[in-house]
Write a structure and sequence with these properties.
flavoprotein; globular; UbiX-like
């Protein structure tokens, strides 16, 4: 997984103003604990406000979870260029505004530019789109980014692992995102098939009947 220069591979994490910045916080916290990749963070202007409203944290506190935090207006940052090697980018959560910008190549800040770079360089771009219900415009934009090579990964909760807490649900979404980049983790128990019922024990009467 290491780059040719011996450094850890880079993963870009974009955070937009969609509801549920907890998704990004859990992802960044998990990546920090794993320590296998270098994280690059870009937060939109709206993300700053949503983080404050929904988590009570300051954006600076979230930035402390990554290795490098880039100002959204720094279009000269290295991740704005395809020559900067990365595993790709995860936009978590991804607002419908950001989805629309990526779908139509409207790169007006570093977050959307970094996403555009991933598409043009054929690198993995994962969009954890967060909205419900979805309009026809939203769906068409999802089709457009998928055709361009992105992966639309709505943070839909799963229940086969029998989650007992909100953290269990967040961990599942984090794990699904990490899977897209081939990053090893143990965020959630994987489906192993239905549980086998216990083998019935034959009584002495059963043997006699046979």
């Amino acid at each position: 997984m290491d780059r040719a220069d011996g450094q850890r591979p880079r993963l870009i994490v974009g955070v937009t103003g969609a509801s549920a910045p907890q998704l990004a916080i859990h992802l960044l916290t998990t990546l920090r604990k794993l320590g296998t990749v270098e994280t690059r963070l870009v937060m939109s202007r709206a993300a700053h406000r949503t983080i404050e409203l929904e988590t009570g944290l300051r954006p600076a506190e979230v930035a402390e979870l990554c290795d490098v935090s880039h100002p959204r207006g720094d279009i000269a940052a290295d991740i704005a260029s395809g020559s900067c090697l990365t595993l790709g980018m995860a936009v978590v959560p991804c607002s419908m505004k950001t989805l629309a910008a990526i779908a139509h190549g409207y790169s007006d800040d570093l977050l959307t530019r970094a996403a555009d770079v991933c598409l043009k360089e054929r690198r993995r771009l994962v969009l954890a789109t967060r909205e419900t219900p979805l309009s026809l415009v939203h769906l068409r934009n999802m089709v457009a980014v998928t055709e361009a090579g992105a992966v639309v990964l709505p943070p839909v909760p799963a229940y086969y692992h029998r989650p007992a807490s909100l953290d269990d649900l967040l961990a599942h979404v984090t794990g699904k995102i990490l899977d897209q980049f081939g990053i090893g983790h143990e965020s959630f128990p994987r489906w192993q098939g239905p549980r086998k019922p216990p083998t019935p024990q034959l009584s002495e009467d059963s043997y006699e009947q046979q």
